[in-house]
Amino acid sequence: MQPDSFNLLRSLSEIGGFETSLPTLNEQAVIRRKLAQQLLDEALALEKIISGVNLLKGTPNLGEPGALDRIEAEVHAAIDTSKPAEPADVPRGVDAVRAVMLDGGVWTVDQVYKTIMRRDWIDESVMHPRKAVETAVNRLYSKYGEVERVGRGRYRYKTAPTDPTLLNGSGSAEP
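RESULT FIELD:
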């Protein structure tokens, strides 16, 4: 079944008749666009209901665009054992440096870095982990004021216990 507007076009024999029919054609186009939008809105609403029911049932909606790709990615993520799951309680950044330095004593950036590496607290996605540790030490010193510089390149957490074996006789960490 063809719309009336197509029959109208077929019956036109001259351009003059076509030009006089443009307002009617325009009205028909607007009506059909509105009808098409209403049908599309209804279809989308029905698809949302279907997705919701499938979600409640635990059944994926395979007709949804990209559904198969998402399911495949979820399966691969579930069986990917190349990276161990990271514990949520592992400190990172400033928190990791703070945790190390709270053990007490005087620390160099290199000592803090090696300790964090040994404890496996470095995020593998960090491109320059030593620089990240150095930045965290500097933040604790200059931004937060939790660390004091006790010598050239040596730091101590202010509230941590002092380790006298790391200081020289004058109480300084300077060599």
